[in-house]
What we know:
By secondary structure, the chain is α+β, with helices and mostly antiparallel strands. The chain folds into 2 domains: about 30-65, no CATH class; about 70-190, no CATH class. It is built from 6 helices and 5 strands; from the N terminus they run H-H-E-H-H-H-E-E-H-E-E. The chain has helices at about 30-45, 45-65, 90-95, 105-110, 125, 155-165, and strands spanning about 75, 135-140, 140-145, 170-175, 185-190. The protein has a 5-stranded antiparallel β-sheet, with helices on one face. Strand 2 (about 135-140) and strand 3 form a beta hairpin. Helix 1 (about 30-45) crosses helix 2 (about 45-65). The longest helix is centred in the N-terminal third of the chain and has 21 residues, at about 45-65. The two termini are about 35 Å apart.
Amino acid sequence: MMLRPADAGPILPDMEPARYRFTTSPTPAYAAAVGALRSLLEESGDERVVTDAWAEVAAAERLRIFAGAGDSAMAECRGQPCALRLTPGGCGEQRVLGLPADEGFDDYLARDASGHLADACDCVTRRGRTDHPSLWEKGGRPDAFVAQPYDLGISDLRELVSFCDRHGLDCSIGASGSWHQPGRTLLLVIRRDEGNAPGEPAGGATGPARG
């Protein structure tokens, strides 16, 4: 944990309260919030405390925006948060066990106590960095697999690309939008790639890969 020395001096001495980097017209409420966060940093000496304070406000709003509203609203699926539930074949582990798609995760774990299903499913949750996974449905059909990793290395990215190519899926990764400890996590979303058949690279058999 990085703590500022007690004699480190004032925080951000080049930024007076009247000067801001991310807005040209701060409201009184904005200025008060920035002042309060600066005071919190002075008090704690740990910028993560400031991030957590901001996250208390941002997390619920980010989740609300992701879930949407009206005809486009999504709800979290019951059962195993497996990205392959987006595909026609479904989750291999549930298929081997004969579990319904919405069986509770605790029941699933109890029936896999022997660990014999380790290779039954190709889901990226077993093969890459997929912290805090969840599966979201729209109109009663799985629509998006979400993970909120703290970081991704090059091997994780390669596995994600390979996984999506194998199963006709697409993936996006953003630095904003996560609601599990926002400010510390990425938002990784996997959806069906409607223009891509399983086994083809993203963008189709001959088209360029999408960035």
